[in-house]
Write a structure and sequence with these properties.
The N terminus is likely disordered. With 312 residues, the protein is of the alpha/beta class. The radius of gyration is 19 Å and the shape is globular. 42% of the residues lie in helices and 16% in strands. A six-stranded mixed sheet has the order 1-2-10-7-8-9. Bound molecules: pyridoxal-5'-phosphate. Pyridoxal-5'-phosphate binds next to helix 3, strand 7 and helix 9.
């Protein structure tokens, strides 16, 4: 776990400029009379990608203000969050610990190899141990073992994360009617909902089943963050393809075609499902003619390493 003296002084706010908006050209959109633009948050930073950067930013600032030198978080073996946290730690001079759901003996994924190369210390927990991570004495045990640290929750979702996601939508300078984003824990969606006070319709395309809890969770986060908000939003559960990280041929085919035709890569866990859902809704005439839709590319392309057999 080495960090250079240079990175210790790098101000956290200065690394990422506003990301670009790019119009997606597609005969279908002309036919249906809608416009689709993509906010390229996959281009935030080469190593700290998309919404994971947005969610980390104010956590990093808080950790630095608290004088913490160690960041600890949780994730799976392909986690975009763990990848981003490891890179951010290296860049900004924090030590990092990743508590990983899995067995230490398992072969390292590209994600975990990258995290270790950035200096992240990995500790493995089996499924049953991992499930206990929300118990109060679990974090006590971690502090006994590792000393004091700044805890970033799994997936990076907390109120500080919402603040970074608000900035993502504040960067959009054109008027629009609808905004789409992929949702996992719902933190990014909650940040967007909190940041927009206009008439736009916001849709979170859920990448997991969790119908019973996600909508409630987003509503709770928004309420805590804004204490009352007027934007219209929904979570769409029609395009999770069977659940988290589940795929089928139609999804893989769509992603390949989109990547080639638009020259914008997608991955199958989040952004691929969102864009599939958006195209399907447009096909079905869901959006009134004249609608301008913005889809947020939340990044996560490093996670493609888990799908080598589909994408080579
Ligand atoms: C983590 C992630 C999401 C989901 O974000 P939440 O804030 O957990 O809803 C969406 N897209 C990508 C690429 C991600 O890595």
């Amino acid at each position: 776990m080495q960090n250079t003296a240079l990175s210790l002084t790098l101000p956290i706010v200065m690394v990422v400029k506003a990301t670009a908006l790019q119009q997606i050209m597609e005969p279908l959109f002309l036919e249906m009379g809608v416009e689709v633009w993509m906010k390229r948050d996959d281009l935030t930073h080469p190593l700290i990608s998309g919404n994971k950067w947005r969610k980390l930013k104010y956590n990093l600032i808080a950790a630095r203000e608290e004088g913490q030198h160690l960041l600890l978080s949780f994730g799976g073996i392909y986690s975009n969050h763990i990848h981003a946290l490891a890179a951010a730690g290296k860049l900004f001079g924090f030590n990092t610990i990743g508590i990983i759901r899995g067995e230490p003996a398992d072969e390292r994924t590209d994600t975990l190899r990258f995290a270790e190369a950035q200096g992240m210390q990995l500790h493995f927990l089996d499924r049953s141990g991992y499930r206990l991570k929300h118990e109060p004495d679990f974090s006590e045990q971690l502090r006994d073992r590792f000393g004091d640290f700044y805890l970033v929750p799994e997936g990076g979702t907390n109120l500080a994360a919402l603040r970074g996601c608000v900035e993502m939508v504040e960067e959009i300078e054109i008027p629009y009617d609808c905004l789409c984003v992929a949702s996992g824990t719902g933190g990014t969606l909650a940040g967007i909902v909190s940041g927009l006070k206009g008439k736009q319709q916001i849709t979170g395309f859920s990448s997991l089943k969790g119908e019973d809890t996600l909508t409630e969770k987003v509503a709770g986060l928004v309420k805590e963050f804004t204490r009352g908000n007027l934007s219209k939003w929904e979570v769409c559960f029609d395009y999770h393809f069977g659940g988290y990280a589940k795929v089928n041929e139609a999804l893989i085919g769509f992603i390949k075609k989109f990547t080639i035709e638009q020259n914008i890569p997608l991955e199958p866990v989040y952004t691929g499902k969102m864009m599939f859902g958006l195209y399907d809704r447009i096909k079905k005439g869901y959006y009134p003619r004249g609608s301008r839709i913005i889809a947020i590319h939340t990044g996560g392309l490093q996670g493609l390493c888990g799908y080598k057999k589909y994408f080579g």
